[in-house]
DNA sequence: GTCTATACCGAGATAGAC
DNA sequence: GTCTATCTCGGTATAGAC
């Protein structure tokens, strides 16, 4: 049992560390040695858990996707789509420092791995599409079925752009400014045609 | 004279190629061999023009900055800030395919080189700040001095986000959708307090 | 000024001892 | 299952012939 646990511990530690370092410096920029050293796992031992670096990358993508799944479930407790949209925006503000330091942890990874081609590229596209699809559902549920896709793209773009600019300037306060604007936008939109719950 | 010209030609070709490949695959991902081969300059010869890869990177940044300077000058022909803001947005739409393929050529480079530290990082920050400052001036000139900075950040963020999402999905039509939205936003804003020319 | 050959290093990956 | 030693390759950079 101890053995099994220490196995999963190491594996988990490797993924965690890879996730953190990849967010800070980019995945390709991060060497396996860096990851192993930071995770306190002997360098060569990494290959016991992951056959290639790409496989570790997949694990990181899956972890990020799971992260978003977790977010969705939290949102499930809220009763209206409007509340969920506000909660989404709030979650952006809560991560302002993280965003200013390394950009968006989902789309940053996605656009980086996109070039790799193969299974990784395909899988990483979900990092973009999952949040987009979820936002689209919310707008639909909020009675904006007509251009739910457009609204979702707009909100998500605004989020991405804010992350990019905050990262570029290193200023987390820009996130706060933009979040306020986004909230006003959602509020105005919801007044237009306020329909239903869930 | 022929000799001198072929020198500058090679140097120029190297920068051009580096710029193109860096936009497509990222600067660090692009090897000097790739650049030299594509530019049809012998590999080792690169070091006659640039002592290090970083120096070539600087040249690329400078070229991108010059590109934006050129844009500013074109905009100078327009008589009102409002027109210039619309022209900015139009220029985004014109580059939709480029954006869908490789993201924003300014900020993409900036955020990539940011990690490098040193002179390159400092210089590349201008890729973000120059457009931001210019947008701020336009909003000021258009009579929105109060929150010109906020408006500039908003517009530029929207641009960046659109580029990121279009790149992630590979769909240039998202740019068109967002551009329409941005134009409406500017138009509404200008009605609010329409003041002056230049 | 131009180009070739090569040194050098760090990264990913493997073999195999324990 | 765990870890060390090592191979290989590709990239930056240099020395030096022409």
Q: Biggest β-sheet of chain A: count, sense, barrel?
A: none
Largest interface: A-B, 35 and 35 residues
Strand content of chain A: under 5%
- Tell me the span between the first and last alpha carbons of chain A: 44 Å
Count the strands of chain A? 0
Oligomeric form of this entry? homodimer
Helical content class of chain A: over 70%
Radius of gyration of chain A: 19 Å
**Uncertain runs of chain A:** none
Element-by-element helix/strand order of chain A: HHHHHHHHHH
Structural class of chain A: mainly alpha
Broad shape of chain A: elongated
Summarize the structure.
Two copies of one chain form a homodimer. With 198 residues, chain A is mainly α.
Architecture overview:
Chain A has 198 residues and is an all-alpha fold. The first copy, chain A, is built from 10 helices and no strands. In chain A, helix 1 (2-25) crosses helix 4, helix 7 runs antiparallel to helix 8 and helix 8 (118-141) crosses helix 9 (148-169). Chain A is elongated and about 60 Å long. Chain A starts with a helix and ends in a 6-residue tail after the last helix. The mean pLDDT of chain A is 92. The A-B interface holds A 25-26, 28-29, 103, 107, 110-112, 114-115, 125, 128-129, 132, 150, 153-154, 156-165, 167-169, 174, 177-178, 181 and B 25-26, 28-29, 103, 107, 110-112, 114-115, 125, 128-129, 132, 150, 153-154, 156-165, 167-169, 174, 177-178, 181. Chain A binds a DNA duplex (18 and 18 nucleotides) through residues 3, 7, 31-33, 42-45, 47-48, 51-53.
């Amino acid at each position: 049992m101890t053995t099994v646990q220490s196995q999963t511990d190491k594996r988990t530690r490797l993924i965690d560390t890879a996730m953190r370092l990849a967010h800070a410096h980019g995945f390709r920029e991060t060497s396996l040695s860096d990851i192993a050293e930071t995770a306190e796992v002997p360098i060569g031992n990494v290959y016991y858990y992951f056959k290639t670096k790409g496989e570790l990358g997949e694990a990181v993508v899956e972890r990020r996707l799971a992260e978003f799944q977790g977010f969705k479930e939290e949102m499930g407790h809220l009763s209206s789509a409007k509340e969920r949209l506000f909660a989404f925006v709030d979650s952006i503000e809560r991560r302002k420092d993280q965003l200013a330091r390394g950009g968006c942890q989902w789309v940053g990874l996605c656009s980086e791995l996109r070039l790799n081609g193969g299974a990784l590229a395909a899988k990483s596209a979900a990092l973009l599409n999952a949040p987009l699809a979820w936002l689209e559902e919310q707008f639909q549920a909020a009675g904006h079925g007509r251009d739910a896709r457009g609204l979702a793209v707009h909100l998500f773009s605004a989020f991405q752009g804010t992350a990019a600019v905050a990262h570029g300037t290193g200023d987390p306060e820009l996130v706060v400014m933009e979040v306020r604007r986004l909230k006003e936008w959602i509020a105005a939109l919801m007044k237009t045609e306020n329909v239903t719950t869930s």
